[in-house]
Write a sequence for this structure.
């Protein structure tokens, strides 16, 4: 499947924390650069995500903001 | 200002394309890893964004999805 | 690629309208039920979307609201 | 109330799962086509959502992505 | 229609700027406090929005971030 | 840090409710006008948010919808 989301960052899962319904998955996309995703517990199971899994962090361009110092 | 968004990736602006109301700003956050943001033209002006600007790509954790091959 | 987004609705593209930077793509996901996506013009090109294309409308669960009469 | 969100899909609630703060509500919007919404527990109560309720899944066009095989 | 979105701020439209596909609508929700919405041109027409219209700015709780100085 | 998000509403935190992974923070941005944010528990800690804290509710323009009666 090819998706319209412009941001697809390859990395490795470094932590998975399940909550009651919402899980937090951290993916290291570059040395020292970790992206946090809040997804459903169901998705963690469906994608069989665990520490060490190869995974992509995917973000729609309209969900990215820009900041400056 | 310190923000709750869990993902704040430091980089450099590599392109700015203004549309009628919506602009696309590309930020290189790691060598070869470019993030695209769709923001308002007004924000481009307010933040004085241009090619070469230091900038952060900011994403709320609930807007990050995870994918696997 | 398998994605964490819980909502992947199969359908057919019924219209594509490009703007200056943002395009509107309409996908019929059930008879008479059309979903509108606002994505980048770049994505329309990258996915080669046109009227009649098979396509999926993909939505993260945290972006779905519920309403009642 | 009439809303700007372009996607308002009519259906019936088929499951409600409350978490600690976030609930998952599944709405069948066409035979066999179920949409999952992650909303606050408060909203489930305010809208009195339960299995069998008539309800709409509402999505802003800018939150819809497109994918192809 | 009653919606799950937790944030429904009543106000008056103070400007409408249509782009090629995306419009910017500004709503004053309290004296001096203006909220900007980026919605489709189609929605502006469907809701007959113009300067002076009574309108609500509606935001899902999961789309609100918090910042501190 | 200066952010592209067009909506930055100043206020005071009136409640913080932590869940398993997701917290709900309510900010009064005008007399009687309260905005609810669903953010990670981690962010509540990182920003040291508590009742009475000065804080901003921050929303990207593309996440704001408009409604009329």
């Amino acid at each position: 499947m090819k998706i319209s989301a412009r941001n697809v960052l390859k990395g490795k899962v470094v932590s998975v924390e399940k909550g009651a319904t919402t899980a937090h998955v951290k993916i290291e996309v570059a040395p020292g650069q970790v992206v946090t995703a809040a997804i459903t517990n169901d998705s963690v199971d469906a994608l069989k995500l665990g520490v060490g899994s190869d995974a992509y962090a995917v973000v729609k361009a309209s969900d990215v903001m820009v900041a400056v110092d």
